[in-house]
Design goal:
The chain is mainly β. It has five helices and 49 strands.
């Protein structure tokens, strides 16, 4: 019997064989001293995972709220009891002289950047006995407080979550994965770029309430992301009008004369539309950058970038049992010279024009018997254009690019999605929190690509390679995805929780029924709840990468190689897809973790994880030995493993220090990604992925200083990324892993002062990014034979930055 079938049989008793009369004990209990507590937030939304403590000293009882925000305590003393409810990210709720029977509703308030009263106490961290998945998170306050370059872009904050590495394009690689192998959710909806899976949706950093990452032991509710789940949760208004503004003053620079440097303002406003029933939130952010490279000649040395984004949300409590939330996100970006660098002067780069639109609506309905139904629908569209500066021939030399970019691109990727989740608890040999549901997506990808010839030159100026492109026509590629899942959280014993589940996925391209069984659990080793171990194994299938499916519709390429010892050789490069032969990429992820509360309120977390992927998509030649006729195959195998140890210390109020070390490997048996725009014509090779960092240490914190000043810092040290070496003919000379960038190190240190003036709260911050001025290059001349071979460039220098925040009255 397969282990998938065993898990199905394990789930069945909790769902099908339970007696019909097995109701919640709250309904059938004759104990008059039992109390059911429901925890909601200030907007009436249920708060799962809240820690409830009732009683005094050693006689206190405790429980954690379920997905419906409820927990129940029985056999309560007749003496006066004190209630304490807390959860990280919220203020503590306390109340003396609590009733010892019946029901009680408790409202927790999210932490705000400025407190309304000084008596409010923040929730302290604790080990969550019901957290099974391997999860890391940053709160919205963490994202605001951590000093890091490019604070206008939340993606750079992801770099300080253990297990996430950013590449040079600010794309996050979670647990050593490709970007498209992560499921990215914005308030519960998938916002990965529908065609290529990139993370391009931008939300104001001031709008985020929490960012969570789950890399292992992920519930069956989440699929299509073998690397895990990245969840972005945004805020909503409450019954107070609030306004905040950040970085609304521009900065200037003196490079070839004084000129505007950048301005990246952010504004948020929120409050009630109808107090106690309807609230709104709006987060607006913008950016203008003027980039100057003094090393380049006049006319080639400057670039300007502007961006605008806005998130608007409304929540309406239609009734005590029905909550409806609607949101709309818009992003616009215009980069005059995309990938402008010392090796790519201004006129050799294209203009990059992007837009993102995401609209969603969700309803949450609760039932009197602890059941909870959630239904939602969303639409998103991602537009992308590349427009060359002119029509001059595009030439690649060992010293850099010349002419005008060769590619004119216009693409649009769209997704329509519908989801439903239903939760209900049951009791049968312990408590079962049953969750099941499904989702349906419809995806379309439009592309129009026009390419002019490009030429590569030798060091002496003679031609090495000339490429001409053919047969590209506007096209549209479609896909439909359907999924369903069943998940059980079985509380076998007070300290033992088992989480079995199974998921079904199907899509229109692969057309195969995919079943993903998963089994994980956690056990608290001591009565104090200070030590917990977790383990699990699960199967995840990767969603179909539509950009790879659509590659053949982008045309073909004819390459002419020039050889001084003979006549030129010409090859035609084509790409084909046979959908009937495709398999869905399959990944098995297993892990074991330990959490321990140490003395002095230090929390330790150690984790080992291993992920193995087979049948991954890759373009390859039929024999695998080289050639120019590429077929999409399922021959790539991925291997990732890591050992991670984290330490975290939280002090009074919002102050915190954390550190994390990760030892990992991220390798593939076929590491090259062939495309018309990646003219590396060599047989596939094994090696590390371009974001592989075998050793990595990160740390960040916020600590109090004298006279009301706070010191914030962030630090990253890691191994340098690997890169390949190519010849002037764009052929592989040395595979990735042979050479690496130098080790990367950055320390950012800022001081901040918060104060009250002219009736408002303010915060002023100043400090240095890369305070040690460590040379961290972002580009390298990787052309073998060039006089500048292995010359690194694009260094981030020490920079003084300042920030001013207007925080309003409360």
């Amino acid at each position: 019997m397969s282990w998938a079938r065993k898990i199905v049989l394990l789930l069945a008793p909790g769902m099908l064989l339970m007696p019909a009369a097995a109701q919640s004990p709250a309904k059938n209990s004759v104990d008059p001293h039992s109390l059911t507590i429901t925890v909601i937030d200030e907007n009436g939304v249920f708060v799962p995972g809240a820690r409830v403590v009732l009683g005094n000293g050693d006689a206190a009882q405790h429980c954690e709220t379920d997905l419906a925000g409820r927990c129940r305590l029985v056999n309560l003393s007749a003496n006066p009891l004190q209630l304490r409810v807390e959860k990280e990210g919220f203020y503590v709720f306390t109340q003396p002289d609590i009733q010892n029977s019946g029901t009680l509703d408790v409202s927790l308030t999210h932490q705000q950047e400025v407190r309304e009263t000084v008596s409010v106490v923040e929730s302290s961290p604790a080990i969550d006995p019901e957290q099974v998945s391997s999860q890391e998170q940053l709160s919205g306050l963490d994202i605001i407080n951590i000093p890091y370059p490019n604070t206008r872009d939340y993606r750079y904050a992801l770099n300080f979550i253990p297990g996430i590495v950013l590449d040079q394009s600010a794309q996050p690689h979670i647990a050593g994965s490709e970007v498209y192998q992560t499921l990215v959710l914005l308030d519960g909806f998938n916002v990965s770029q529908p065609a290529n899976g990139q993370l391009t949706a931008r939300v104001s950093t001031d709008a985020l309430r929490v960012v969570k990452v789950e890399t292992s032991r992920v519930p069956a509710q989440f699929g299509k992301g073998p690397a895990g789940v990245l969840s972005l949760e945004t805020g909503i208004g409450d019954d107070h009008y609030r306004f905040a503004a950040t970085n609304f003053l521009p900065s200037f620079q003196n490079k070839k004369g004084w000129t505007l440097d950048k301005v990246d303002p952010r504004f948020t406003v929120s409050g009630p539309i109808a107090k106690g029933k309807v609230w709104f939130f709006d987060g607006l952010d913008g950016e203008y950058d003027h980039v100057i490279r003094p090393e380049l000649p006049a006319g080639q040395d400057q670039n300007t970038i502007w961006r605008l984004g806005n998130l608007a949300k409304v929540q309406a409590n239609v009734s005590p049992d029905d909550i409806v939330t609607a949101s709309f996100l818009v992003n616009r970006l215009h980069d005059n010279h995309y990938k402008f660098s010392l090796l790519a002067p201004a006129t050799t780069t294209p203009a990059d024009i992007e837009n993102v639109y995401v609209g969603s609506i969700k309803e949450q309905h609760s039932f009197s018997s602890d059941k909870l139904l959630e239904f939602g629908a969303a639409f998103d569209q991602f537009g992308f254009k590349l427009v060359p500066f002119g029509a001059a021939p595009y030439v690649l030399t060992p010293e850099g690019a010349q002419g005008n970019y060769y590619l004119h691109a216009d693409t649009n990727a769209r997704r329509w999605q519908v989801l439903a989740n239903f939760y209900m608890p049951r009791y049968w040999h312990g408590r079962h929190d049953l969750l099941f549901g499904g989702d349906f997506d419809r995806i379309s990808f439009d592309q129009s690509l026009q390419r002019s010839p490009l030429t590569s030159l030798n060091e002496d100026g003679s031609p090495a390679l000339k490429s001409v492109f053919f047969n590209s026509q506007p096209s549209t590629t479609y896909n439909a995805e359907a999924s369903g899942y069943i998940q059980d959280r079985w509380s076998v014993l007070p300290r033992l929780l088992i989480e079995p589940g199974i998921r079904f996925d199907w899509d229109e391209v692969v057309r195969r029924a995919l079943f993903s069984p998963r089994l994980s659990g956690t056990y608290v080793l001591d009565n104090s709840g200070d030590t917990k171990i977790s383990a699990g194994i699960g199967v995840t299938y990767q969603s179909t990468n539509m950009a790879l499916i659509a590659t053949p519709l982008g045309g073909s390429r004819q390459d002419t190689f020039y050889n001084t010892q003979g006549p030129p050789a010409t090859f035609l490069t084509t790409f084909t897809v046979d959908r009937s032969e495709l398999l869905a990429p399959r990944f098995v992820n297993w892990s074991v973790g330990l959490e321990r509360k140490l003395p002095a309120q230090i929390f330790l977390k150690a984790e080992f994880m291993r992920r193995i992927g087979i049948h991954d998509f890759v373009y390859n030649t039929p024999s695998g030995s080289g050639g120019t006729n590429f077929i999409l195959q399922n021959t790539r195998e991925d291997h990732y493993q890591e050992f991670r140890i984290d330490l975290r210390r939280t002090f009074h109020q919002r102050f915190i220090v954390m550190g994390s070390y990760v030892r990992s490997t991220s390798h593939s048996n076929q590491v090259l990604d062939y495309s018309l725009d990646n003219p590396v014509l060599s047989p596939q090779v094994p090696g590390p992925y371009p974001w592989d960092a075998p050793n990595r240490f990160i740390s960040w914190g916020l600590l109090p200083l004298l006279r009301g000043f706070d010191a914030g810092y962030s630090l990253e040290w890691r191994s340098g990324f690997p890169f390949a070496v190519i010849s002037p003919q764009q052929q592989l000379v040395a595979p990735p892993g042979t050479y690496r960038f130098p080790p990367y190190f950055i320390l950012n240190l800022h001081l901040e002062k918060r104060f009250h003036a002219i009736g408002f709260y303010w915060a002023i911050r100043g400090g240095f990014d890369n305070i040690t001025n460590h040379q961290n290059p972002y580009s390298v001349n990787n052309t073998f034979g060039s006089p500048q071979f292995l010359t690194f460039s694009g260094f981030d220098r020490r920079a003084f930055t300042a920030r001013i925040r207007f925080l309003g009255r409360k």
